[in-house]
Write a structure and sequence with these properties.
Length: 358
């Protein structure tokens, strides 16, 4: 039992370590710093001065704009959660300011972010120091109620909450929140559907496993401070042996691949399509490589992240956090719910990479 959690947190820790290396050892985002603190705590290591650095960064944090997209609150939610677990009293002013910003924001709801907000503010709600103003309770309670209502509207008939990759975080959120969803949540149905998706092989990305595991084991990120740290009990988890099935078919399929930039620099706009032939069962990344091999117009670059490779630039147009631009991938008109290194396209599928804003 325990090693599952250890495995998860070691994984998070390893991931945190990797991103430190790729981005230079002194630059971590607020969210990465928060994940590092929680991963260290739960693998029985001392986060040292990282907690006070995170505290200071959150004191100076402000949303990128008054109408910032919800997903930009994901990292700060992780920070409030990590700080709340370490010291709820000193986190109070930070959490109050964060809660007020959330109430004032009206951008479209994002399930992953909503789940993380619920975990963070539930931690605060449960740890409001005795004798504090009643106002804190009602502020956190109000935000929790709103977000729980929004998340409950994302519960589908088959139990999936948002999409399959937000369901794990949403399950954690719904199982701890003091505010009850207006729509009844059938936890067993969600669990059954997720187990089926796992059998179908949808959870092979290590980060997707890390985010679904706690819910399957009846744990949440709120359990992080309660991991028991007995010296000498940090046994190595046994990793399952690799069971990749041998590729069965060597036949080729054709993918119609479009790259579209109507956003950056009028004189740089382009809308190009190419037909690419790849072996059936290849991931989308192979399609991009084949397109690049055939035409310099389809040149692209990738960046390594916790979820794997992100396509950061195509035809010299690069994503930019300050402009909130990125390359969104679509099948027809539907955004993909996996990255290029995981998604397996089907024959004659029309894949578009569209330069857009979040
Ligand atoms: C914010 C966010 C984004 C932002 C990231 C930029 C930013 N600065 O905020 C934007 C909008 C650009 C984005 C893009 C995409 N995203 Co996104 N994203 C998230 C979200 C909500 C939070 C990530 C975060 O802040 N983590 C906290 C920080 C501290 O950790 P981090 O490791 O530093 O975070 C980085 C990575 O998560 C990375 N990243 C974000 N999304 C994705 C997706 C993929 C496939 C990869 C490899 C990396 C990656 O960007 C983060 C910032 O640098 C997660 C939700 C979740 N459950 O994790 C989804 C999530 C990771 N994204 C997802 C997807 C599908 C995508 C897209 C593929 C969507 C699309 N159709 O194009 C694209 C990537 C396309 C490409 N060019 O390769 C899925 C991944 C599922 C999977 N099995 O692979 C998630 C889980 C959402 C979901 N529930 O479906 N995303
Ligand atoms: C709930 O969703 C609505 C509609 O997407 C949004 O305007 C509102 O800001 C969300 N509320 C919270 C607290 O996330
Ligand atoms: C891009 O090209 C496709 C056809 O190749 C066309 O259907 C689409 O409307 C074009 N989009 C823009 C924005 O020009
Ligand atoms: C690409 O394939 C589609 C059908 O799959 C076809 O209609 C189109 O003419 C092809 N384009 C090129 C440039 O080969
Ligand atoms: C099959 O796809 C590979 C790339 O994966 C390509 O090199 C090869 O030329 C393709 N074969 C045919 C017959 O198109
Ligand atoms: C592509 O991005 C542009 C710019 O953001 C946007 O206007 C357009 O609707 C997007 N197209 C699709 C199919 O999402």
């Amino acid at each position: 039992m325990a090693w599952y959690i250890l495995y998860l947190l070691n994984l998070l820790w390893a991931v945190a370590g990797t991103s430190t290396q790729t981005q230079g050892s002194c630059y971590l985002t607020i969210g990465q710093l928060a994940l590092t603190v929680m991963a260290l705590t739960s693998s029985c290591r001392d986060p040292g001065n990282k907690v006070s650095i995170l505290h200071r960064q959150m004191e100076n944090w402000a949303p990128s704009s008054p109408n910032a997209q919800s997903s930009t609150f994901y990292g700060p939610s992780l920070a409030v959660l990590a700080l709340c677990q370490k010291n709820p009293e000193t986190t109070l002013p930070i959490a109050v300011r964060f809660a007020k910003i959330l109430l004032a924001n009206s951008s479209p709801f994002n399930t992953d972010t909503g789940a993380m907000v619920i975990l963070a503010l539930t931690c605060m709600y449960n740890k409001i120091p005795v004798g504090s103003e009643e106002g804190y309770r009602s502020l956190f309670g109000q935000v929790l109620e709103d977000v729980v209502e929004n998340i409950s509207m994302k519960i589908k008939d088959n139990g999936i909450i948002g999409d399959i990759y937000s369901t794990g975080l949403a399950m954690q959120a719904l199982s701890v929140t003091p505010k009850h969803p207006p729509k009844k949540w059938n936890c067993k149905k969600t669990m059954d559907t997720i187990l089926k998706e796992i059998e179908l092989g949808k959870f092979h990305n290590p980060m997707s496993i890390a985010q679904i595991l706690p819910s399957l084991k009846g744990k949440t990120y709120l359990d992080v401070p309660h991991v028991s740290c007995i010296p000498g009990h940090e046994g190595q988890p046994t990793l399952p042996s690799q069971t990749n099935p041998a590729p069965t078919s060597a036949s080729n399929i054709t993918i119609i691949y479009t790259i579209n930039n109507q956003l950056r620099g009028v004189e740089l706009h382009f809308n190009e399509t190419i037909n690419v032939s790849v072996k059936a069962g290849s991931v989308l990344l192979v399609v991009l490589e084949e397109a690049q091999r055939r035409s310099s117009m389809f040149k692209f670059e990738t960046t390594m992240t916790s979820w794997g490779l992100v396509v950061s630039s195509i035809n010299n147009i690069a994503e930019n956090v300050h402009h909130r631009t990125y390359w969104q991938f679509l099948s027809g008109k539907t955004p993909l719910n996996e990255g290029v290194a995981d998604y397996i396209p089907f024959n004659h599928e029309h894949i578009t990479a569209n330069f857009t804003q979040y």
